[in-house]
Write a structure and sequence with these properties.
alpha/beta, Aminopeptidase, Alpha-Beta Plaits, 2 domains, 6-stranded mixed sheet, 4-stranded antiparallel sheet, 19% strand, globular
Amino acid sequence: MADEGRRNGAIARAVRYLDDGGFEADLGRRVAFRTESQKPEAPEDLARYLDDEMIPAFRDMGFTCKVYPNPVTPSCPVLLASRIEDAAGTTILGYGHGDVILGLEDQWTKGAGAWVLSRDDNKLYGRGSADNKGQHTVNMAALACVLAERGSLGFNAKFLIEMGEENGSLGLREVIEANRQDFAADVFIASDGPRASPDRVTVSLGARGAENFDLVVALRDGAHHSGNWGGLIADPATILAHAIASIVGPSGQILIDAWLPPATSEAVKAALDGLEIDAGPDAPEIDPGWGEPGLTPAERVYGWNSFAVLAMTSGNPDSPVNAISPTARAHCQLRYFAGTDEQNILPALRQHLDGRGFQSVEIRQPPAENAAGFGASRTEPDDPWVREVLASVRRTTNQPPAIIPSMGGSICNDLFTDLLGLPAIWLPHSYAGCSQHAPDEHLLVPVVRSGLQVMTGLYWDLGDRGLA
């Protein structure tokens, strides 16, 4: 009972941190850093976020800090904060990214703009509030509350903060490979992405991979009058449209067999059985007839592959002229589930297009900032570490969490599962309607409150485990 009281005391500290304004003060400072990793002129703020904000916060908790230069993207350094209480004890590796997607400052309609944290009722607006500054702020605060209540964590903690996730985490693999022992741990536990629904704690066990590519039809150097040449010369936009229609059906079903994921395991099926997706009141409605037939919405986003045309152009849509354009281009993406043959994605596409007479459609690699490139990976739902996390969440909330075998988005999860060989477990503190990667990005205060309680309880329980 005494330990339960101290556990509750640590959770109460975390709630007070939110209610007394500490969370908003910390997150407000962090949002103000314009850490747009996709902008070549932003390196100063990327490094300053670590030097001026992260390192002091971790040192206040007794962590030692080391910054690693990024050999691929020099403007995006990597921080590892470490607190080693017992060299023979359990080590937990955490993660966050301090970089954000482009601010799109002129497009915000809510709050006070991209770089000022602003509260409107239960929403905290600001770029990075949900992705990912708010989420790693929750976890750092939970660590601090356990330390304040217990005087120690009861386990060894390592926390990685990278500054290039929105740029594809370029260079992070090289940093970890060159310093593998520094990042060694027993389990990876972090927070990113959305919950299945705002009011239900969610445990995500992996991430879909992302393969971005351009489809280009380039037939000639210049445009030609559509009256004089219509019916005589091929239209690149028409060819491209038919090529895309051969890849994906009119309701979003993938038509390339090599792009389909492997059979779903029984553990994954059980995790998704009955799972409902509730993205919140501001989210778009789910189209019931879109995607792979016969699957539930949860199965389509958390257990299946999806293809999307992210951008497409031919000629100048804003100022069209009566001429047949010489080129057409589409920027496309395949999101794929673990087990998909990722090395065969583009070769299979080439074979598919050639077999249908689309030899004129080129497959090109996009610019680095649009290349994505994260691999798919997953920890099985019956892993012992997963069971331990689930038990802790139930202890805190008295409710079973939603279990997602693979978050719909993509992140560098494979570096932790495949490169470091760790079980990887994510507990997201946002929701699908947060306008992540768009103007008006925000966090929900009730989700922050829940996240603080769950993570403080989890770190406390992991400390009990480490002391056992």
